[in-house]
Predict the 3D structure of the following.
Amino acid sequence: MSRVYNFSAGPAALPLDVLQAAQKDLIDYKGCGMSVMEMSHRGKDYDVIHQEAIATFKELCGLNDDWSVCFIQGGGSMQFAMIPMNFLTKDGSADYINAGAWSSKAVKQAQMFGNVNVVANCQKDIPTRMPEKDECKWTQGALYSHICTNETISGAQLKEIPETGSPLFADMSSDILSCERDYSKFSMFYAGAQKNLGPSGMAVVAIRKELAEKGAATIPTMLQYRTYVDEDSLHNTPPTWAIYIFGETMKWVKRMGKENLFKLNDEKAQKIYNVIDASGFYRGTAKKEFRSNMNITWRLPSEELETLFVKQAAEAGMKSLKGHRSVGGIRASIYNAFPMEGVDALVDFMKEFEKKNG
Amino acid sequence: MSRVYNFSAGPAALPLDVLQAAQKDLIDYKGCGMSVMEMSHRGKDYDVIHQEAIATFKELCGLNDDWSVCFIQGGGSMQFAMIPMNFLTKDGSADYINAGAWSSKAVKQAQMFGNVNVVANCQKDIPTRMPEKDECKWTQGALYSHICTNETISGAQLKEIPETGSPLFADMSSDILSCERDYSKFSMFYAGAQKNLGPSGMAVVAIRKELAEKGAATIPTMLQYRTYVDEDSLHNTPPTWAIYIFGETMKWVKRMGKENLFKLNDEKAQKIYNVIDASGFYRGTAKKEFRSNMNITWRLPSEELETLFVKQAAEAGMKSLKGHRSVGGIRASIYNAFPMEGVDALVDFMKEFEKKNG
């Protein structure tokens, strides 16, 4: 086996422990005589997987019984539509921060359903950033407010959760459970699973039960939150394999200790930022106070050098370092499961590359 | 390894070949140095998986370039809503056959969007059945007509595809690629993957490109068919693992030879129906001419005996024979990947059980 260091922004590296257990059990899950992929979602064997995944996630986020954790297909992008479909009425309005490609997509879907106040817009700013506290003009009486805590493409992260004065919804696709957050501040938060949580194919949605009940009841069954809350994400066949790997990944987070992981995430990111800051060659994309610990983005003096960097890194076993096609540059995505050794290898490579080409 | 015979209605048995290959490659897919679950959906390695899956399915269904094959999250249930959302206008109408639990769900979602003509209703008939040809009152000028070719719960299957006079849409979740069908008769057909195609977590949707372009353009991006057609199901992160297993399953169908599989499916079903017909003890649920080759449903003289049957079968390594909770009885789901040996084991068990309890 020759595993590479996989810097992909998502789908992304999963814990090797989790993959090894999944491999071992793939054909015969713990003596059940079948693969998890083959199990009835109404059976006892699967039910344990489903319930444990929810319970472990709730424990890690510190969520009490006011909360429901739902598995909803369609990733974060479907949530961009489901949220306003359920909660934005024609005579009300919602507040959105637009701080990058992902929050911008959320804004566009919401505008199909009602009035959207963009309370701060730094979507196209370079260096990339999140809005300053006093820059946001929150609306009194907004139906809800929506933020994206980490912009995967720009590499900017919201370090402090704002006080918005209305129920707060957050897209945490790329930094959920990667740093200390007080999840009780939110009415709902969600994440496409394929970065910090598991494989692609679903969003994990934590929602206050009371909120789900307030959603519009006139929309299709599969697009109402109450369907998932009331039927425990088992109204129809859920993505059972993705839920299984998600559950195993959550158990891995618990085994590692989340505080320990948060600390490691800081250290991993800091190592790369240190190389950038010590160099006249590399140039960080994000404003320092908003630098993401998950997606480190930077430029080289020319696009030719960037192409060479990505190519030579791949040859040295470091894959998917190319920045998003919409912005170019370099991006190293280092989620929870990304190992420290991979960061050390990248740091060495960066120094060497600068020496040769700087 | 001790694999059981898994009669689950879905998620259901997958080809052992496919599972073994997935197991072997789980941590390091063909020397890429990572799991398929960890691959960027924009990378070259994943792209081969994605394109091969589509090409193999198109070849098996005999679809030309007028068709697009899309991977849409949410299973068949999401399609029940997406179809009318895209194609049913307030001033038009659509024809639906209601022949069981699944077509009934499709009708309900469609009624949220416009006028639905239920052209035949045998949803609650016992013995279960599909409508007769002359029973269906197709509407001239309907925007489209919708059928479910196989009702997984009732065990009734449409043997002949009707001429409806309007674009024909079909839910083929439980019998796609299991028997000879002329797929060119349809404007669109779809299947939740977790029965004949792969793991749960998506519907495979075959749609004429021209039709997708006619869909409403005012609905959320993730709920428009053109998003999937125009961006090759890569607008956002697709369920990559499910697509991979789907692709491998399609290659397995090709290796087996689909005509060969269709013949085996007939033989497998016939063996069980023969035991039922030769017995005064077992009573088939579906009318003979509409008996499903995929979901064989029958009753025993009492619910107590049914419970005992399911229990003793499970002890003998035959799992998930319990009928759907809404109707009771026994159900043996024997999709493409279900092996003949499992049918033989069931047939022996049925005869033995009748001797002891008949």
Remarks:
- Residues 16-256 of chain A form a domain with the Aspartate Aminotransferase; domain 2 fold (CATH 3.40.640.10).
- The two ends of chain A are 35 Å apart (CA to CA).
